[in-house]
Amino acid sequence: MNSKHQYYLNSMGITVWQDKQAVDAPKPALEVCSEEKSTGYSWEALQQAVKNCTQCELCHSRKQTVFGVGPADADIMFIGEAPGASEDRQGEPFVGRAGQLLTRMLHAFDIERQDVFITNVLKCRPPLNRDPSGEEVAQCSTYLQHQVAMVQPKLLIALGRVSARYLLGVTAPLRQLRGRKLTYGSLKIPVIVTYHPAYLLRNPRDKNKVFQDLQNAMKILKTSEKSS
């Protein structure tokens, strides 16, 4: 590990120690499917559709929608749960304290924020930052389906329980999904499941687990690049 990586890991409060055999040990494969619909939008039309959306009650309490940021051909797509207060004000995902931690996490792997696509399952903030309801996810997730189908990333990283359960169509606890071989729908895009940065702010002891998850993500990405 070079000094730059160590600097960013230190800034995240991570002390790295790993049992190589434990990290490299294979875990059971788990393949689950989520239905995705073919997109009939252009990128600009999809952005406008999200901006004007009134499909659920969240349209009445939001300041603005949060479509997502990043290149429309990004190799990696990070998917969170829903915008928070800072995101609702600025119209961009992950710009609060959790977003700052996500940026440091990316830097630990020499990844610039502007090189990945970052979005949420929900495009509007739930009041008081409560968890998205099942109905809200059902009504809003079509936009995410279009985004994934249009970006065609090589890797999806689910940040948190809501994102993981939606992408994989399962109800398993997040701890059971971490470290497994997962794919999204008929597109067969690899999925890495890890903790949401907001969770890490409350539970910093789990930062090492996220670091290991992102290590696995980078291995998958390198394998994908070699095979393409």
Brief account:
The protein is an alpha/beta fold and 228 residues long. Helix content is 43%, strand content 10%. Strands 2-1-3-5-4 form a 5-stranded mixed beta sheet, with helices on both faces.
Could you characterize the architecture of this molecule?
The two termini are 27 Å apart. The protein is built from ten helices and five strands. The protein has a five-stranded mixed sheet with strand order 2-1-3-5-4, with helices on both faces. The protein has helices at 3-11, 20-24, 43-51, 85-90, 97-107, 134-151, 161-168, 174-177, 197-202, 207-227, and strands at residues 76-80, 117-120, 155-159, 182-184, 189-194. Helices cover 43% and strands 10% of the residues. Strand 4 (182-184) and strand 5 form a beta hairpin. With 228 residues, it is of the alpha/beta class. The protein has a domain at 75-228: Uracil-DNA Glycosylase, subunit E. The radius of gyration is 17 Å and the shape is globular. Residues 15-38 have low confidence and may be disordered.
User: What is the CATH domain class of the domain at 75-228?
Assistant: Alpha Beta
Helix content: 40-55%
Total helical elements: 10
Largest sheet: 5 strands, mixed
What are the segments in which pLDDT stays under 50 over at least 5 consecutive residues? 15-38
Report how far apart the termini are: 27 Å
Silhouette: globular
CATH architecture of the domain at 75-228, please?
Answer: 3-Layer(aba) Sandwich
Record field, number of beta strands: 5
Widest sheet, order of strands: 2-1-3-5-4
Overall mean confidence score, pLDDT = 86
Order of helices and strands: HHHEHHEHEHHEEHH
Going by helix content, strand content and strand pairing, the class is alpha/beta
Determine the CATH topology of the domain at 75-228.
Uracil-DNA Glycosylase, subunit E
CATH superfamily of the domain at 75-228: Uracil-DNA glycosylase-like domain
Q: What portion of residues belong to β-strands?
A: 5-15%
What integer value in Å does the Rg equal? 17 Å
